[in-house]
Design a protein that fits this description.
alpha+beta; Peptide Deformylase; two-stranded parallel ribbon; binds zinc ion
Length: 196
C-alpha cells in the first residue's frame, strides 16, 4: 500500500525517533509499504518519520545512482546492491573531507540544493532478522544513508544550507507546508486547509 508522505512543516519530521524491538507490530507489512511508497515517488530512500512514525528505521535503494557516468565500477557495484532497511541505526563515525552533492527530499518536493557532508561513515544497524551489522560506506552510498539517518534525528537537508539560501527558499517551503504545490505522489500537508 502506498502511504502518504509527510510534507515539510509537520512536527513529526523534527523529532528524534526511538529504537524499536523485534516484536514491532506488522513489521513485514510496514517494510513492504515503505518500499512501495518510496518506489511510487521515485525516491532512493525513505525514513519512518516521513510516513508519520517516530521510529529509528529507514530504507534505501541506491540503484538509480549506479547509472551515474562519473562514478567508478566499484562504487556502482556497491550502489546496485544497497537496497535494504536499516533498523535502530547509529552512525558511529564520520570521516574524510566534506563534499557537496545536490540533494532532494520526498518531504520537500521541487527543492534541490547542494549539501556538504563528510565522505565516509561507519554505521551500526540491525537487519530484518535483528542481526547486528557494522559497515562502512563512502561517496554516494554514504550520502544516501546520511540523508535518511538525519530524518530519524529530526534533521532535514535544508537545515544544512547557508542562512542566505534558507531565506531564498523560505517562500517555497511555506507553500509546501500549506499544500500549495503539485506533486505526483501521495502527500500529507500539515497546514493545508480542509476541503481543498
Ligand atoms: Zn529526505
Amino acid at each position: 500500500m502506498v502511504l502518504p508522505i509527510v510534507a515539510y512543516g509537520d512536527p513529526v519530521l523534527r523529532k528524534k525517533a526511538k529504537d524499536i524491538t523485534k516484536d514491532y507490530p506488522n513489521f513485514t507489512e510496514l517494510l513492504d509499504n515503505m518500499f512501495e511508497t518510496m518506489y511510487n515517488a521515485h525516491g532512493v530512500g525513505l525514513a519512518a518519520p516521513q510516513i508519520g512514525l517516530l521510529i529509528r528505521l529507514f530504507i534505501v535503494d541506491a540503484e538509480p545512482f549506479a547509472e551515474d557516468d562519473e562514478i567508478s565500477e566499484e562504487e556502482a557495484a556497491v550502489l546496485k546492491t544497497l537496497k535494504k532497511p536499516f533498523i535502530n541505526p547509529e552512525i558511529i563515525e564520520e570521516t574524510g573531507e566534506e563534499w557537496a552533492f545536490n540533494e532532494g527530499c520526498l518531504s520537500i518536493p521541487d527543492i534541490r540544493e547542494d549539501v556538504f557532508r563528510k565522505e565516509t561513515i561507519k554505521i551500526r544497524y540491525y537487519d530484518i532478522n535483528f542481526n547486528e551489522h557494522v559497515e562502512t560506506y563512502s561517496g554516494l552510498a554514504a550520502r544516501v544513508i546520511q540523508h535518511e539517518y538525519d530524518h530519524i534525528e529530526g534533521i532535514l537537508f535544508t537545515d544544512k544550507l547557508s542562512s542566505l539560501k534558507k531565506r531564498l527558499i523560505k517562500g517555497k517551503l511555506n507553500n509546501i507546508s500549506s499544500g500549495k504545490i503539485r506533486v505526483d505522489y501521495r502527500m500529507r500537508f500539515p497546514l493545508a486547509k480542509k476541503g481543498r
